[in-house]
């Protein structure tokens, strides 16, 4: 047994959701919910948008930050056309002031601050709802495998990444490669080679594939997205494909692009249409301060209320992930030295920008990979495991390929003939009453006396199969096979047993053999 209680985000976000809903319901004169509101009060939405814009400038521009509380402040506010008083919202940008006031009993945040914080809470709740509730594939193999990978990530990547990664069911690339060439690309996108055009033949195949995804995943299929090591705006037919996506899967997926400044009118229409078709949040990746200024000149604060600006420029307070093309680069080291939030141990923190536990699909190449986020390293520099890759020719072979991958790599329990060993990142320590597992993000303690210690020791040795651990435990301790298998499957479900893809090409597992008790426990 474990002394550690698993995290309960399902309860945490529900309690917060109830609190937010109650605030808007009981105090409509003060608070509105904006995210799913098709017609919010324009003045209310504008106030939140203007606070958002100030904070974007503060995050993106070192000169703007430095001008606060100096004679240059007015000039910077005018340059960015900021029409909100920085003093009024000081709680949101001045760290010392924030820390002073956050626990003060005699201080009440201005209404503009309260409304903005409510807006941020709405977006966090939306992410949590996706992560722990809405994304739940119909196929039980995929659903349980995804949950197992999420359990693994808590220790593997740490709580921060665990809470940020939604583990989307799939991503589809409509181009082969990317034209942008970001120096920090966390998935090492190659140069753009070709796009997949929306010809009648391709569109017919696309629609059939959307139907297959919906049949396989149910409502969860609407929460995929259509970019990866690509920029969606590279494909001139992106919007046409998204309309079919929305028609068949129930919602327009999120768009993240680094080229909004190049396609202003196209993007303006995309933002409107995508929101009308169910997309709640889009994102612009901002590569330079010059691009940031162009975006603010092209779009009003109100137009970008539902669009997050991901400030990747060197002057910004944010820090890129130490993964993919950025991993170990001199430019990333320079950025870390200039970014207080990076911390002295930034190189030691697990890096990944991957956010899919499912299928990575490329349309020009007609390939499918089964992937899940992991800390990047020499073997997985792009921050995700690849369990298998295959090709398809049409919608039928596409479905067959995904079905096969799930059957081969998404077992419902620990397979008898597979190695029984802890993940490589876990440190095993025997205790007087069991054992302890320590990783970057989590420490778990198991107790139960000599039987538990024996099982932990056998698994930590890493040289036995699941079946061998169960049989040897029975022989040395007398514990029934069924109890040992229950324990092994508990470790398996929590993502503590190693599932890293083998270095050699994947081969189907040998037919399961062994005692009837073992076989019954492995169903």
Please outline what is shown here.
This protein has helices spanning about 10-25, 40-60, 60-65, 75-80, 90-95, 95-100, 110-135, 140-155, 160-165, 200-215, 240-250, 265-275, 290-300, 330-340, 395-410, 450-460, 465-475, 480-495, 515-520; strands at about 170-175, 175, 195, 255, 280-285, 305-310, 355-360, 365-375, 385-390, 425-430, 435-440, 445. The chain is of the alpha/beta class.
Secondary structure topology:
Blueprint: H1 9-26, H2 42-60, H3 62-67, H4 73-79, H5 90-93, H6 95-101, H7 111-134, H8 140-157, H9 159-164, E1 168-173, E2 175-176, E3 194-195, H10 200-217, H11 238-249, E4 256-257, H12 264-276, E5 282-286, H13 289-298, E6 307-311, H14 330-338, E7 356-362, E8 367-373, E9 384-391, H15 395-409, E10 427-431, E11 434-438, E12 443-447, H16 450-461, H17 466-477, H18 481-493, H19 516-521
Parallel strand pairs: 1-7, 4-5, 5-6
Antiparallel strand pairs: 2-3, 7-8, 8-9, 10-11, 11-12
Helix pairs in contact: 1-7, 2-7, 10-11, 10-15, 16-17, 17-18
Describe this structure in words.
- The chain has helices spanning 9-26, 42-60, 62-67, 73-79, 90-93, 95-101, 111-134, 140-157, 159-164, 200-217, 238-249, 264-276, 289-298, 330-338, 395-409, 450-461, 466-477, 481-493, 516-521, and strands at 168-173, 175-176, 194-195, 256-257, 282-286, 307-311, 356-362, 367-373, 384-391, 427-431, 434-438, 443-447.
- With 523 residues, it is α/β, with parallel strands linked by helices.
- The chain folds into 3 domains: 9-122, no CATH class; 135-385 and 393-409, TIM Barrel (Alpha-Beta Barrel), CATH 3.20.20; 427-521.
- The strands form 4 sheets. A 4-stranded mixed β-sheet has the order 1-7-8-9. It has a 3-stranded parallel β-sheet with strand order 4-5-6.
- A hairpin with a 4-residue loop joins β7 and β8.
- α10 packs parallel to α11.
- The longest helix is centred in the N-terminal third of the chain and has 24 residues, at 111-134.
């Amino acid at each position: 047994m474990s002394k550690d209680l698993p995290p309960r985000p399902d309860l945490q976000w529900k309690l917060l959701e109830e609190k937010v809903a109650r605030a808007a319901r009981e105090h409509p004169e003060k608070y509105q919910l904006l995210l799913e509101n098709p017609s919010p009060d324009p003045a209310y939405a504008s106030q939140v948008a203007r606070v958002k814009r100030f904070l974007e400038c503060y995050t993106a521009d070192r000169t703007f930050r430095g001008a606060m509380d100096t004679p240059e402040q007015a000039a910077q506010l005018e340059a960015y056309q900021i029409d909100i008083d920085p003093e009024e919202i000081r709680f949101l940008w001045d760290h010392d002031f924030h820390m002073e006031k956050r626990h003060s009993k005699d201080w009440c945040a201005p209404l503009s601050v309260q409304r903005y914080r409510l807006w941020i809470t709405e977006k966090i709740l939306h992410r949590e709802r996706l992560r722990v509730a809405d994304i739940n594939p119909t196929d039980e193999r995929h659903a349980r495998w995804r949950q197992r990978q999420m359990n693994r990530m808590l220790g593997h990547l740490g709580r921060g990444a665990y809470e940020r990664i939604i583990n989307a069911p799939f991503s589809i690339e409509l181009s082969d490669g990317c034209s942008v060439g970001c120096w920090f690309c966390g998935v090492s996108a190659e140069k753009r080679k070709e796009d997949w055009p929306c010809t009648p033949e391709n569109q017919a195949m696309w629609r059939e594939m959307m139907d297959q995804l919906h049949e396989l995943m149910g409502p969860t299929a609407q929460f995929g997205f259509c970019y990866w090591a690509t920029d969606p705006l590279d494909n001139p037919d992106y919007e046409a494909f998204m309309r079919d996506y929305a028609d068949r899967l129930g919602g327009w997926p999120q768009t993240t692009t680094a080229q909004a400044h190049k396609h202003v009118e196209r993007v303006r229409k995309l933002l409107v249409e995508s929101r009308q078709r169910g997309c709640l949040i889009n994102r612009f990746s901002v590569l330079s301060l010059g691009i940031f200024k162009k975006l603010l000149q092209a779009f009003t604060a109100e137009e970008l209320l539902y669009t997050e600006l991901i400030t990747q420029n060197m002057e910004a307070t944010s820090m890129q992930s130490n993964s993919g093309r950025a991993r170990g680069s001199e430019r990333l080291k320079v950025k870390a030295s200039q970014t207080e939030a990076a911390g002295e141990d930034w190189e030691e923190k697990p890096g990944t920008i991957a956010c899919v536990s499912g299928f990575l699909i490329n349309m020009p190449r007609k390939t499918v990979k089964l992937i899940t986020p992991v800390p990047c390293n020499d073997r997985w520099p792009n921050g995700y495991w690849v369990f298998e890759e295959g090709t398809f020719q049409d919608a039928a072979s596409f479905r067959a390929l995904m079905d096969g991958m799930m059957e081969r790599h998404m077992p419902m329990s620990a397979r008898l003939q597979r190695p029984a060993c802890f993940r490589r990142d876990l440190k095993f320590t025997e205790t007087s009453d069991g054992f302890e597992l320590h990783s970057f993000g989590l420490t778990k303690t198991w107790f139960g006396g000599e039987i538990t210690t024996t099982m932990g020791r056998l698994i930590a040795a890493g040289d036995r199969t699941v079946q061998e651990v169960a049989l040897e435990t029975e022989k040395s301790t007398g514990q029934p096979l069924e109890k040992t298998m229950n324990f092994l499957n508990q470790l398996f479900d929590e993502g503590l047993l190693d599932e890293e893809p083998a270095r050699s090409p994947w081969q189907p597992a040998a037919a399961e053999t062994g005692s009837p008790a073992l076989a019954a426990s492995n169903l």
